[in-house]
Description:
With 350 residues, the chain is α+β, with helices and mostly antiparallel strands. It has helices spanning 3-19, 39-57, 79-87, 105-118, 125-134, 164-179, 193-211, 275-288, 335-346; strands spanning 62-70, 76-77, 93-101, 221-222, 240-241, 244-248, 251-258, 265-267, 270-272, 296-303, 313-316, 323-329. The strands form four sheets. It has a five-stranded mixed β-sheet with strand order 6-7-10-12-11, sandwiched between helices. The protein has a three-stranded antiparallel β-sheet with strand order 1-3-2, covered by helices on one side. Strands 4-5 form a two-stranded antiparallel sheet. α2 packs parallel to α5, α4 (105-118) runs antiparallel to α5 (125-134) and α4 (105-118) packs across α6 (164-179). The two termini are 42 Å apart.
Amino acid sequence: MTQSNHILIRNIYYMLAYAFSDLRKQDYQLVGGEDFENISDLMAEILTNTTSFLLKRGLYREYITSKQSLPTLRGKLDIVHSARNLAIGKQQLECEVDNLSENNIFNQIIKTGLTLLMHDKDVAKPRKDAIKQIMPFFNTIDTLNPSAIPWTTLHYQRSNQSYELPIQICAYVINRSLIDPNKEKQKLMMFSEENFNRLYEKFVLEYYRRHHPELKANAETINWNIDADRSIGWEYLPKMITDITLHKDDKTLIIDTKFYSQILRAKYDKNTYNSNNINQIFAYMYNMDVQHTGNVSGMLLYAQTDNENIPDSKMQMRGSSSAIYVRTLDLNQEFNLIRDQLEKIVLLME
């Protein structure tokens, strides 16, 4: 294993720790002090720790509807099927009954993730042993088909908020099992571009929230700068929601985080930035700066890839103090250097 791989794996832990406050709690502090040979081993350690925490609190339960044949009415009566029973002399009522159950989608996802890690050759024996100790608590819970998990339907509330981190870890583990079954690459293959981009975005946002509360870092909805009274069909315009918006005094910086396997695109024998990304950040700036003050700037913050070293860029707007910046954040280095890069962005607000 190279040193660069080691640092990248460690940085994924730090990014998760910023993105999910649960990982910064005392229960999980031991994770940060260990060395991990690969990403699977790190994911196994985090998932066993977070799942153990859930077990101490009691697994989340929700109402699951089941159909039951009963001698007396319970729950909601299925009139059609109950009538059929009576017609054939069966003295049973068909009822739809709601029962509080641990066998719900959240616990099923965790069991599926744990099962995959337990059979992963890259997970060290001590962590596999820890998973084996946890699995009996999931005996009554089903596993899922990894390719059929309805990720977009998951909703968190106060009663299951603590599931967000372990479910996210399971998403990485399960997605890897689908996209990289042979596990030939150790670096970022655990994460699809979509999943890693979400983690990258949340990490940067939470970094500024934690270390620079004065910048009021947030994801903000931008209204379209149009005259609705003289416009037709404007209600069909898509929502504009920033990844990160920083405010200081009268200055605003909109940061759009991007993670791609390749930053530059070849077009007409020339390498260029992604035009959609440039147009998007420009639209954010234009529509946020309603009064055209020139105090709203934008930045595309790419995660640096192995094969591209992109110099910092700045496109100054004509007749304005606003600018479009393009920066790369090298995640394959010591974390204190990543922090230095993020701090240099803060200086743009001076």
